[in-house]
Amino acid sequence: MGRLKNKLGLVIVMVVVLAFAISACGWFAPTPEPTPTPRPTPAPTPVPTPTPTPAEDIEPEEEEEPEPEETLPMPGERGNTTGNISNVGMAVLYEDRIFFSNAHDDYFIHYIYIDGDDEWTRLNENPAMFLNIVNERIFYINFDSRAIYSMDMDAGDLRRLSDDAAWWLNVVGNRIYFVNLDDDNTIHSMNLDGSDQQRLGNDYAMQLIVYDNSIFYSNMGMGEVGFMYSMNLDGSDRRRLNEDAFSGIINIQEDRIFYIALIDVGWALCSMNFDGTDQHMHMTFTHDEDRPPNFNFNRVNISDGRAVYTNAPSGNVYAINLDGSDFITLPLPDGPPYINDINIVDDWIFITRWNPDEGPSSITQQIITGGWR
Question: Which among 6, 91, 97, 332 is least surrounded, fewest beta carbons within 10 Å?
Fold first, then answer.
């Protein structure tokens, strides 16, 4: 019994010692979370501002210059006057130069300065008639082939615009109008570059003048004897304007159509409104017994309210106001008796003369200046 007490006491002592040791070592006590030591927030590292590098002089890339756009002619802009076209367009004015077909040099185009020294300068070597200038280009009909050509003002960039034989060339606005001799003398039109050629009607035309929005022509078709007709620029609204035979040498002046025709009293200068109304006879031409009555050598060109005309076979050129006043005879050098064409440019008059008995070899060209007004 005493031993048991001693062992029990010894056990209790060992348990106490062991509990104490375990408590001292912290085996059963929860380990508290350590309180984190706050760290100082680091100051942001300053970013150094870069020193600007001087920019290099960079040459800008050269831009391609756009090609200049083609300047279109003004609507209604004419290549020559109606009076000159009716007299085969042998002369035309452009700025300070007169361009003309030189009958003494195979009808090659020459020019002369209005205020110059009267020196004739050859421009090309194509025989030309019906000169027109539009959009700084010269348009003409080759007198040999009858083909239509154009070129620039110095005879460069020569273009053949049509292979068809043509006559009565009118260049107005952005279209070319002409009588196509290879297509039964019908009226055609095309663009300035020769494209979009169109036939405008079926009439056999012997004269042609384009003015404003209308085409005027002498109709020599079936059953016709040269009565004057008109139509729109597209060939529509065809209408007959008169009953005067062989109406031709058409001039437009003061919003009226002037023309030479064979009427009951012989050859006469007549006029009418654009619609054929208010027809009026201004004067008659002397009848020539040596030629048939339907063979007309009379010519007229009207400018600035005055008619400059010839009365075959007098060999003279006259000028008169449209009201019949201020009649004068223009002085001319001697030459063949028949005046074939009269072209007026500024104060200049270009005429060709010939003798039918001697043929084309007798053709001469004369130029007179001033005095006709």
Answer: 6
What average pLDDT does the segment 36-49 reach?
Answer: 41
Contact predicate 187/200, CB 8 Å: yes
- CA dist 250 and 209 (Å) reads 7
Q: How is 273-294 classified by DSSP, letter by letter?
A: -TTS-S-EEEEE----TTS-TT
Mean pLDDT of 356-364: 88
Q: What is the side-by-side strand order in the sheet with 338-345?
A: 338-345, 348-354, 364-369
Task: Let me know: does 310 contact 298? Beta carbons within 8 Å.
Answer: yes
pLDDT grade for 76, boundaries at 50, 70 and 90: low
DSSP 78: B
The answer to whether the CB of 258 falls within 8 A of the CB of 250 is: yes
Q: How far apart are CA 147 and CA 141, in angstroms?
A: 6
As a 3-state breakdown, the chain gives helix, strand, coil percent values, each rounded to 5, of 10, 40, 50
> What's the burial of 358, exposed, middle or buried (CB within 10 Å: 0-12/13-18/19+)?
exposed
What pLDDT sits at residue 223?
86
